[in-house]
Design a protein that fits this description.
Helix content: over 70%
CATH class of the largest domain: Mainly Alpha
Largest sheet: 2 strands, antiparallel
Number of helices: 14
């Protein structure tokens, strides 16, 4: 009788409603986790697991199939830092990064400034300057191999010389840098053009009335206003330069005489040609640390040199 009275008074349904609300709250808290599971699964398989595996291999001795044979601690790192070839790869890598990043950003800015002028046929210029973004490293390497050919290449025909652009150690790194910089031009141009078009026209018009010439506008208005895009472009070029591989593998294979043997190609060669997976993983971790330091320095500079509108 008492339970019937409680049910008839609505007490039991109220308790059931509270239980349902609690379950819904719990499911609501867990719902974001379910949405993140696919992304985390991809990261675990393709990022976290390979990174942990790389650390383990760098601290071990492996066989030709990359299987761990014994734990050796830091011996691989000690051996690596005693290797002259490793330091040569470091020097070549930084030279390559400088040869690619500085000219690529400078030329992209110049092309963006030209395309930003209200001239007839601007759309054609924009399409032409953006085309390298749609070309992968393999077809780009094939195109530039014909351009750099020592006897039939377009470049030597224009210069009237027979320079071995890809076979001479004095020119090989410079030639690969040209190819990589050209591949970066398209994306650089798009970002910088977007930044230029976001500059209020009133600023440029008022500066022109005050008698400012082009260089004053560039230094005091254009560069500060597009500094976020400039920072992004410089960051992308540095990262892409450190990771460049396809064009080097296809055009020079690290030669001649290791003149283009950057760290990424050295990692590939140690693992798949020399069968020294532990050395390759050790070099990969060193490259990771270098890129991490460069990235941290860039973001530290970003706070001082980038002006957000």
């Amino acid at each position: 009788m008492e339970q019937r009275a409680m049910y008839s008074s609505g007490i039991m349904p109220m308790e059931k409603d509270k239980v349902k609300k609690r379950r819904r709250l719990r499911l609501g808290k867990l719902e974001p986790i379910f949405y993140l599971i696919p992304a985390f699964s991809v990261f675990i398989v393709f990022v976290f697991y390979p990174f942990i595996k790389t650390i383990l291999l760098s601290l071990s001795q492996t066989n030709l199939r990359g299987e761990i044979q014994e734990f050796v601690g830091l011996d691989n790192f000690i051996e690596l830092f005693q290797s002259p070839e490793f330091y040569h790869s470091i020097i070549v890598t930084f030279q390559f990064v400088l040869f690619v990043s500085i000219p690529s950003v400078g030329i992209s800015l110049m092309l963006a400034l030209l395309a930003n002028n209200k001239l007839k046929g601007n759309r054609v210029y924009e399409l032409m300057f953006s085309l390298p973004m749609a070309i992968a490293s393999a077809p780009a390497a094939a195109i530039w191999a014909m351009i750099f050919h020592p006897t039939n290449g377009v470049l030597n025909l224009i210069l009237g010389k027979e320079i071995g652009w890809l076979t001479d150690p004095n020119y090989a790194l410079f030639s690969i840098s040209i190819v990589t910089g050209w591949l970066n031009l398209g994306i650089n141009f798009i970002f910088l053009t977007t930044g230029l078009r976001n500059i209020p026209s009133e600023l440029l018009e008022s500066s022109a009335i005050d008698g400012a010439n082009f260089w004053h506008k560039l230094k005091h208005i254009i560069i500060p206003m597009i500094s976020p895009q400039m920072f992004l472009v410089i960051f992308m070029n540095l990262v892409n330069s450190f990771q460049a591989f396809g064009q080097i593998k296809l055009l020079t294979q690290g030669g001649p005489g290791d003149s283009t043997n950057v760290l990424v190609h050295s990692i590939y060669r140690e693992a798949f040609f020399n069968g020294r997976f532990e050395t390759a993983c050790t070099q990969a971790l060193v490259l990771f640390v270098i890129m991490l330091i460069v990235t941290l320095l860039q973001f530290k500079f970003e706070k001082k040199g980038v002006h957000y509108q």
